[in-house]
Amino acid sequence: MPIRLSTRAVIVHQAQLLLVNAYPDGQSDLWCAPGGGAEPGQSLPDNLKREVFEETGLDIHVGAPCLINEFHDPDQNFHQVDIFFRCQIQSGALSDSWRDPEGIVTSRRFFDREALSKIRLKPDCLIEVAYSKIDAAVYDPLERLLPP
């Protein structure tokens, strides 16, 4: 099984974390950081800028890596490694009228820490990493992909 490489943006803006629902037509209540699969021949930061713009309409500055997470679904023969980067918004604003050209991300929003404790999100350590002041990247070992 080939390992898929993906980039993700950790964007904390005004003490709120940006998350997306990446299940078409809201088939799941699972939220994650915006981003997506890396394209050959494109740098990871450039890939992440493209993915975040497609999913949210935001232009971002990509900073340092802060988390490496891997997950798998052995039943579907799927294994993905996500590299998360600390990012800041350079321009744009979230809009309900924005449409992901691929039609995967159906919702995008900022969550404060209280709201984060009431939703389902992956990876498990994302909240801790997002609000941490530690500069080193965290490694989150292999976890099983949750069903929708």
Question: Could you list some keywords that capture this structure?
Answer:
single chain, 148 residues, mainly beta, Nucleoside Triphosphate Pyrophosphohydrolase, seven-stranded mixed β-sheet, two-stranded parallel ribbon, 3 helices, 44% strand, globular
Please characterize this protein's 3D structure.
- 29% of the residues are buried.
- It contains three helices and nine strands.
- The chain has helices at 44-56, 113-116, 126-130; strands at 3-13, 16-21, 30-31, 35-37, 59-73, 78-91, 107-111, 120-121, 138-144.
- Strand 1 (3-13) and strand 2 form a beta hairpin.
- The chain has one domain: Nucleoside Triphosphate Pyrophosphohydrolase.
- Strands 1, 2, 4, 5, 6, 7 and 9 form a seven-stranded mixed sheet that branches.
- It is mainly beta and 148 residues long.
User: Major sheet, described briefly?
Assistant: 7 strands, mixed
Mean pLDDT: 91
CA-CA gap between termini: 22 Å
Percentage of residues in helical conformation: 10-25%
Task: Explain the layout of strands and helices.
Elements (H helix, E strand, L loop, with lengths): L2 E11 L2 E6 L8 E2 L3 E3 L6 H13 L2 E15 L4 E14 L15 E5 L1 H4 L3 E2 L4 H5 L7 E7 L4
Summarize the structure.
The protein has 148 residues and is mainly beta.
